[in-house]
Amino acid sequence: MMRRKRSSGGKAEGSASVEAGSNKTKKSRPTGSRSRGEVQEDDEQVQEESGGPFVVMLRAAGVTLGQAGTANQIAVDQVVFQKRLQQKLLRSPRYPGILQDFNAGMEGHMEDPERFRSCLLPCVPRLTDGGSSAASSFQESLLRMLLGMDLLQNSVINMLVEKVPEFMLSGGDDGGLNVPRVIINQLKWLDRVLDSKELAAKLMELVSVAPVEVQRDVITSLPEILDDSQHNDVARELKALLLEKTQLTVAILDALSSLNLSSALLAEVRGVVTATLTAVQLDDLPVVVKFILHSVSASDAYEVVQDLRLKLELDQWAVSPVLKASQKRLKGRAPAPSQDSVALVLDGIKSTMRFQKTLSEAWLKAIENVTEAKDHKVIDVLLLLILHATNANHSRRGAERLLRLKARAGLITEELLQRTFKGYAQVMRGFFPSIRALAQSLLRSPDTAVVPFGGHMYRLSFITFDSYCQQEVVGSLVAHVCSGVGGEVDVALELLCGLGAEHPSEMVLYAVFVKGILDYMDHLTPRQIRRLFQVLSRLAFGAPSLGCSIQDDMHIVIRKQLSSTVPKYKRIGIMGAVMVVGSMGASRPQAEGSQSAALPQETYRQVTALLELVTACSVGCPEAAALCYDELANLVLSNILDPTVQEWIGKSVLEDFQDDFVVDLGPQITGSLPLPACVLFNLDEEESEGGIAVNLLPLLAREVQHRAEPWSSKTPKRQVSAVCLSPFFRLLRVCEERQHQGDLEEIDALLGCPLILTDLAVVDKLETLTKAERELMCSLLFTAINWFREVVNGFCRLKETEMKMKVMNRLQNITALQALLETTLAVSPGYIPPLANFDGDASEAASVPTSSAQPSRAKKDGGKRKGSSKTSPEKSDVLEESEETQQEPAEKAEKGKKEEKAEKGKKGEKEGRPSVSLGGYRPFFRELDMEVLSVLQCGLLPRKAPDTELHTKEREEVLLGPAELLFLLEDLQAKLEFSLTAAPAKRVPFAKGRTEKSVGFSHLHQRSSKEVASYCIQLLPSLCSHLEGCHNHFQTVLSENGGVVDGPATDPQEHQLLSSAYQLLLQVLNTTFSWSGFSQPGHRSLLKSALALLASRLKEGAPDLTLEQLVRHGFDYLLNLRSTVPTLGAALGLCQLLATVTSRAGPAAAYREQTASLARGFLTQPWVNASGERERGQKFNEGLQTVLGIYLEHVDDVLTAVEEIAGEGVAELVNAAKDASSETWPTLTRQTFLVFYKGMLWELEKAVKRIPAGKMSDSFESQSVKLLTWNLAVRDFHILVNLVKVFDGRPVLNACLKFGRLFLDAFLRLGMPLLDYSFKKHKEDVQSLLKTFQLSTRQLHHMCGHSKIRQDTSLTNHVPALKKSLEVFIYRVKAMLTLNNCQEAFWTGNLKNRDLKGEEILSQQARDSEEEQEEQQEEQDEEQAEDEDSDPGDKRRPGGDLEDDITDDSDD
Fold it and tell me: For the CA atoms of the chain, what is the radius of gyration?
């Protein structure tokens, strides 16, 4: 062995190294192992002869090459191996030639694929005889260790790169080993790369020729192979490759995201990636989106996000129709592959939002800037949910706010939301907590325009998601119902009702949740109670096999309520029982054959038993019986009942009605009655013999008698009450309609039959009657009116001319009886009418005005005298009228009612008797159906036509009289305000008195807002015809009277009726076009049809026009009415209608000039009534204030307009007589001065807020323009403030103090920065402005002193804040002068407190003489300084003027 070592230096040295290494690792050598070592050395000699220096040096360094596919063995640690091998190579005498031999031997060894694979795999530690090893358990591959040596790295890299094509062409995967991938892995994470540029070039060259799989491996490994110096160059090549091969997108982006790139190159690469986004496969999309968002900087976040949003077309990757059908329910189903990818995309977006606030803001801004509904996409909905789901409060609030805005504007539509739920159900399921939270927020919103969107989110969540989500949805809806907030309760109940009808099998599982609402019925309205019982009865009885679990509970609750002696609970029981009858007795459709299946006998028995129970429980209470009739009538009208049940209801109605309420007409009426009986309002005079009459007076007299008598056992259990007359007839009528398909021939005699009343001439001598007789008279009139209203409801659908004439006569009877009722109520204080709507609480309906016209008028006059006792005679009128306009809103409403009564009283006095308004008695009249309004399609009675003309048989055309037109328009306006006007909801849970507004609209509740709006649009041609008729009437009157209203050709009563009708017609049109539903995409066609009808009145037969053209034609049509508007109220209605119509075409800038001219015309027009008296009163003042606001808002120059009114109009008023008005502005009188004054101050303050604040960067011209604007504003303010010296009423002072502080605050916030930067360039302008402004502030200070002397809390409440603003103004001017190095021009002094006339307040004269002399001297100095004309360059003048604004109130 020693001889072989000496024979060759290199070999001996290598052998010695191995020996030495072996000796070091062994603690002892076994004595019997020599022969085995000799055999091993002989094998190694063979390897040396075949491998050359490569094998020898490796063995000497500690690595033994394996044979026949076995792993290479290493005896030392890899670091030791590399160090030894490098030393052997460097110390070799043949260095550097030995490197070539080593490389040649390496290449020769690697020619064998098996040996090459062994070199690619990790080396295994070589064990000694004792089983131990000097190397660690894991070692790198041989090639990996050679790559770590600088001497061999390049040659090894070249060999490896050349080897890749050999294996990639053969399939790459050999024996479970992907050789190309392993080769590439050898190059990763090298401690040092000698020639990174060359390596990058080789790798990119390899990418250009390799298959896709190898390309992916190479590209994804680039960041782990190359140095940072090569990252930019490689990124450019990858960018070019990205455009060529989309299948490498993921690998390239994975590599690019790990490369260290410059910002410019990163933006360039991102742009290329974004450009290829539309061509990316769905599976690659998450990586692409993640790369784009992770490469965003704060400066370009919005642009990148906006571009990404435009390119993300998730709709094209939506679930296919087959998968949609299979994924109708998500229970136990795996999500579609596309949904997995979309979920990954959204997760990537969510992660970036969570850690980058700029991206959240950018997404919000990108969605917010979408202005068209068609431009919104599914991704927008998903992004809003992501934003809401993040933990950041700002993004959550921003998402909620933005969704509310988009839903209100109709930009994110329900159709888009539905598409998102259907296409991405599994993705949306992950956002269910956010969906529920957003739906709750929208449903609780006071903005009614967004509430349906929240309900749609609930509905889709229930339909799309699993049972857990369904349970949560039902629980949330139940919580909404139990909240007690009216609008929230209504929507939640509608949703529950809809879900119960569409998905009964799913909803019945959660019926126990809905049943819990029964505990909160005390706080629900009658309509809500009906809905609740409808839901429960549908779940319990709609599918008997499913809902049997709550049927018994329903029966128990209903029986308990019906047997209650409390009227409220009895009403609940009746409504619940009728709803249950509707569900149990509903007709059951058959799949084939007849229209419906027969009702099971047992079900029929239960239904009839329940109906008999309801009848028995309500027979002793007329109000309960009336409610039962109304509820049954509504049930029959719903047309859902089985014919057998419907027949059972109607079989005894006709006979019972005839027996209870109808009598045969005889020669005379017998019986003792408190008032003389008389047969009235018979429309069938020729059939008087053998005719019938409604037995009204005897019924009411009997009721009065029963109430007076003590209860006894002889009293009949069933009492016939006049309260049941109208409800019973309604039930009779709907039963006849259903049984005879709309034919009412069996009961048409009731339309023309008379009523047994008393002689109506008794109204002229009401003072002679007792209180009981007057109240009986009121009850007679109420019951007769309600009978006629119900008769009109029943027969208004008939088409025969005779029937139409009779309906028109009944409308005349209603208006005539209402006039008598107004007079009768005036002398019956404390009277409570009989109920007419029975589903509400009687105590709520009973809250009616009980005072007559005269006492309220006296109280009003007394208030005036009290308020004017401390003012001068010439100013008393101003104060009187001003005090009226200063009341709180509740007081205003009450005062408005009193004024309305007073006007009625005046009208009655002219006729010889007082009267009251029936406006507060609406709950005591029967509701008119919407179909009654079809009578408006009749024409208007020609002017001066005799009243008897309607009664002549020769007249074939049915025409409306002015009184009937006004009656129908009042009812139509009330219906539209209730149904279409979205009043802001006040979140007052369980508020008392909530039902008052809805009393009398039970039938209207059954129609949606869209149905009401559609019906009104059908009436639009008729309404326009009536509007034109009123216009022509007043035009004729003006021409006959020579252009004046109060001429001989004017009939005062007709003028008043048609004036009111004119105003109501405009209000009806305005309410219709103001409906918020028109902004929803689904109702745009409805809006366009309404505008087309309006435009067709001006331009008939026009082709299809755009919305803007229709608005223009409609505007021109309505503008033609301006010349004949009879009252200021009608003028205001016209202005508001024009503003509403123009708003439907977007910004109304094109109509500003015409609107301002129209409003100015109304302000410069004297408004007088038919008797020649000037219009006045609170309503007139409120209308005038609104018209003035419209004028000042639309005029081009507000400041000039204010100066014109305050400078010219008020000056004319001051010089005019006491009862006169301004010549230029006839509406400006001493009574309306406060209206103009407050309006001008308010618009002035809003105008200065629109002036941009001064900036240092403003140009000279810009500063000049702003200074000029502020000079005009300050001058207007000075004029208005000085008017308090002439009009010193308390409301005027109050307005001046309030708006004066607001103006001063706006000047400090917006005007002072302008003075800071423009003082040096515009010294004279600034000085003039401050001088003028200081005169105003001094007057404000005097008003503060005056308020303290008067000790008026309404004035002194404004003083502290105003004085604070005045002091801030002083020091702010000082700061401005200091900023411009003129601080020496500023000095302060103490002002004395003075009153409005400038006289010193007496309380300050109690000081000692020395202090008094000092103050007088100081004041003289101040006045002298004010009177001196300062030099333009004198900087002391502004300070001299400003010294008055610091006051000393030490004596106060």
Answer: 47
